[in-house]
Design goal:
heterodimer; A: about 90 residues; mainly alpha; two-stranded antiparallel sheet; 3 helices; B: about 500 residues; alpha/beta; Amidase signature (AS) enzymes; 11-stranded mixed beta sheet; 17 helices; about 40% helix; globular
C-alpha cells in the first residue's frame, strides 16, 4: 500500500495538523518508507491469535463517586484563553 | 563527592559527613558549569532544590531521614511537577505549568529527594537520540580523544542519562516506551531499568503510548537503580493499569548472586550484521554469569524480528490518540485561526516537531476506516505472539541476557535522513515493552574506540529481583570503572 498526496492530505486533516503543499512530497516519501517497512507483518501467521491490547490484567472498577473537584482556578490555570470559569474558543456557531 | 554512589551519599548524609545543602550546592554549581555544554536540563530548579535540601537537613537532624533524604536527582521533563514547568520537550507544552505532581515524583519527594531540575528528552519521548527535542540536542558526556564531534546520549531519556553520566545528578527519573531508559543507559555507560508494566504509576506522566509507557530510574550502579525504583514503584489507584502488588526490597536482591539460575540466550538476537565487538561482549557477559554459578541455556524467541514493525504500528496509534488532547484549548500553546478547526490545525502544526507529526500521521492512518484490521489489529495479534515467545522462554529460564543496542553512541546528526534507520536502534529493547516484562541495561565494557556498551537483562513479569540479582553479578564481574571525557575534565 502506497500513499498518494491526496491520502496524505486527508490523514493530516483527520489528525488536525496543517500541512503546506510544499511539505507533501517529503511527508509522502517518509510515511511510505515507514509503511513499506511495516508491511513485513503481513507474512506472520496470526490465524486464531487473540489480539493483545496491553498487559494481561483485569482493569479495576471503582465506586462511581465524586472524588475530586471544586478547583476551577487550578483547572483553568493553563488555559490559553478563558471567559470566567470557562475555556474560550473561536466562535463555532454563526 | 561526585564519585560517591547514591547509596554512599545517602550513608554519608546520615553520618553527617556533609549536609544535604552542601551536596546539593556542589551538584548545582557543577550543573551550572556543565549544562551549557551538555544541555541535559531544560529547566534547572536551583531555588527549589536548595529549599528541599534545607528540609532534608532538618529531617536528618531529627533523625527522620527517608530512603532518599537529601539525594539530588534529575527529573525527566515528562513527569508533571507541581508549579514547575513541564514541557515534554515540545513547543506545544512550552508554557505548561502543572498544578499537580505525578505519582512517581510524589513518591520520590515523600522519600526526601531533592530535584535539581527538569531533564531534556526527545519531544514527547519520541526518539532514540534526543535530537527531536524542541529545546535542542543533548551532548553525550562521552566523546573520543581527537574527535570533538558531540555524540548523542540516546533517547528518549537523553538528558536524564547525560546528567547522571556527567555527575550533574546522582540519579534520574526516566520513561521507557520502546527502549528510552535502556538505550540511553547503554550509550552513556550507566544503569537503567524499565520495570514490569504496571510497577510504576503512569499518573501525571505525559502520555506517549499508554500500553507501553513505563517509568524507571537511571543511576550509576545497579544498587542505586534498585533504591530509586523501590521509591518510584507502588500501587496507585489513580492509574487503572497500576499493579496492586507489594514492592519488594529491590536493593537487597542486588547481592543475591546467580548460583543455580538459568540464563537464556535468545538465538534470534544474533544477526550477521551485529558488530563483532558487541557479540564478543555478549559472550563475555555469559561467561561471567557462568563463572558466578549460573547455567546458560539456548532459547528461541521466534517473533523477535517483528517486534519493531509491531511497535511502529501500536505506539503511533496510541500516540495519535493521546496527543489529540493538544488542541490549544485547555493547556499549552495556541495559534489562532479563522475558525475552530483552523485553530486546531495551526496550533498542532506549529506546536509539534517533525518526528511527532510523522508518528501522529502514521497512527491516524493505521487507525483510520478501512486500514484498522490490516495494520492495527494485525499488530496486536503479532504482539500477542511476541509475548507468548517470552512466556514460553520463561518456562525454561529465570532471565535472559542480550546486548542492549546494536551500536555504541553515534555522532549527532547521523541517521537523521531515514526515520526507519533511527528506529532500528531499538531492535533489542522494544520486545520487553511489547510484552510488558522488566529489562535492565548496565555498562559492561567499552568498544575499541572507547565508547561504553551495555548488556540487557530481561526478566519475568514482576520479578525485577532476579533481574537485579543478575545485573549485580554482571556489574561485579565487569568492574566498569571507565569515566566519560567530560566528567574527567569537569
Amino acid at each position: 500500500m502506497s500513499l498518494d498526496p491526496a491520502t496524505v492530505r486527508r490523514i493530516a486533516r483527520l489528525a488536525r495538523i496543517r500541512v503546506e503543499e510544499g511539505e507533501l512530497p517529503r511527508l509522502q516519501n517518509e510515511l511510505n518508507g515507514i509503511l513499506g517497512w511495516i508491511e513485513q507483518l503481513q507474512e506472520v501467521n496470526v490465524e486464531g491469535i487473540a489480539p493483545l491490547t496491553g498487559a494481561e490484567m483485569a482493569l479495576r472498577l471503582r465506586e462511581d463517586a465524586v472524588t475530586d473537584g471544586g478547583i476551577p482556578e487550578k483547572v483553568l490555570a493553563n488555559a490559553p484563553d478563558r471567559e470566567g470559569d470557562f475555556y474560550a474558543v473561536p466562535k463555532v456557531v454563526e | 563527592m561526585f564519585e560517591l554512589s547514591l547509596a554512599e551519599a545517602r550513608d554519608a548524609l546520615r553520618a553527617r559527613k556533609f549536609s544535604a545543602a552542601e551536596l546539593t550546592e556542589a551538584y548545582l554549581s557543577r550543573l551550572e558549569a556543565l549544562n551549557p555544554k551538555l544541555n541535559a536540563y531544560i529547566t534547572p530548579t536551583p531555588e527549589l532544590a536548595l529549599k528541599q535540601a534545607a528540609a532534608a537537613d532538618a529531617a536528618l537532624a531529627r533523625g527522620e531521614g527517608g530512603p532518599l533524604t537529601g539525594i539530588p536527582l534529575a527529573i525527566k521533563d515528562l513527569f508533571c511537577t507541581a508549579g514547575v514547568r513541564t514541557t515534554a520537550a515540545s513547543n506545544i507544552l512550552r508554557p505548561f505549568v502543572p498544578p499537580y505532581e505525578s505519582t512517581v515524583t510524589a513518591h520520590l519527594l515523600r522519600d526526601g529527594a531533592v530535584f535539581l531540575g527538569k531533564a531534556n528528552l526527545d519531544e514527547f519521548a519520541m526518539g532514540s537520540s534526543n535530537m527531536t527535542s524542541a529545546f535542542g540536542a543533548v551532548a553525550n558526556p562521552w566523546t573520543l580523544p581527537g574527535d570533538a564531534r558531540p555524540r548523542v546520549p540516546g533517547g528518549s531519556s537523553g538528558g536524564s542519562a547525560a546528567a547522571v553520566a556527567a555527575r550533574i545528578a546522582l540519579g534520574a527519573t526516566a520513561t521507557d516506551t520502546g527502549g528510552s531508559i535502556r538505550q540511553p543507559a547503554s550509550f552513556c555507560g550507566i544503569v537503567g531499568i524499565k520495570p514490569t508494566y504496571g510497577r510504576c504509576s503512569r499518573w501525571g506522566i505525559v502520555a506517549f503510548a499508554s500500553s507501553l509507557d513505563q517509568a524507571g530510574p537511571l543511576a550509576r550502579t545497579v544498587e542505586d537503580a534498585a533504591i530509586l525504583l523501590g521509591s518510584m514503584a507502588g500501587f496507585d489507584p489513580k492509574d487503572s493499569t497500576s499493579a496492586d502488588i507489594a514492592v519488594p526490597d529491590f536493593a537487597a536482591a542486588c547481592a543475591r548472586g546467580v548460583k543455580g539460575l538459568r540464563i537464556g540466550v535468545p538465538r534470534e538476537y544474533r544477526s550477521d550484521d551485529m558488530p563483532p565487538e558487541i557479540e564478543a561482549l555478549w559472550q563475555q557477559g555469559l561467561a561471567w554469569l557462568k563463572d558466578a554459578g549460573a547455567e546458560i541455556v539456548d532459547v528461541s524467541l521466534p517473533h523477535t524480528k517483528y517486534g519493531l514493525a509491531t511497535y511502529y504500528i501500536v505506539a503511533p496509534a496510541e500516540a495519535s490518540s493521546n496527543l489529540a488532547r493538544y488542541d490549544g484549548v485547555r493547556f499549552g500553546a495556541r495559534v489562532e485561526g479563522a475558525d475552530l478547526i483552523e485553530m486546531y490545525e495551526n496550533t498542532r502544526a506549529a506546536g509539534f516537531g517533525a518526528e511527532v507529526k510523522r508518528r501522529v500521521l502514521i497512527g491516524t492512518y493505521v487507525l483510520s476506516a478501512g486500514y484498522y484490521d490490516a495494520y492495527y489489529l494485525r499488530a496486536q495479534k503479532v504482539r500477542a505472539l511476541i509475548r507468548r515467545d517470552f512466556t514460553e522462554a520463561f518456562g525454561k529460564v529465570d532471565a535472559l541476557l542480550t546486548p542492549t543496542t546494536p551500536s555504541a553512541a553515534f555522532v549527532q546528526g547521523e541517521r537523521m535522513d531515514d526515520p526507519v534507520k533511527m528506529y532500528l536502534n531499538d531492535v533489542f529493547t522494544v520486545p520487553a515493552n511489547m510484552s510488558g516484562i522488566p529489562g535492565l541495561s548496565l555498562p559492561a565494557g567499552l568498544d575499541s574506540s572507547g565508547l561504553p556498551l551495555g548488556l540487557q537483562v530481561l526478566g519475568k513479569p514482576f520479578d525485577e529481583e532476579t533481574v537485579f540479582a543478575v545485573a549485580g553479578a554482571l556489574e561485579k564481574a565487569a568492574h566498569f570503572t571507565a569515566r566519560p571525557a567530560l566528567q574527567a575534565e569537569g
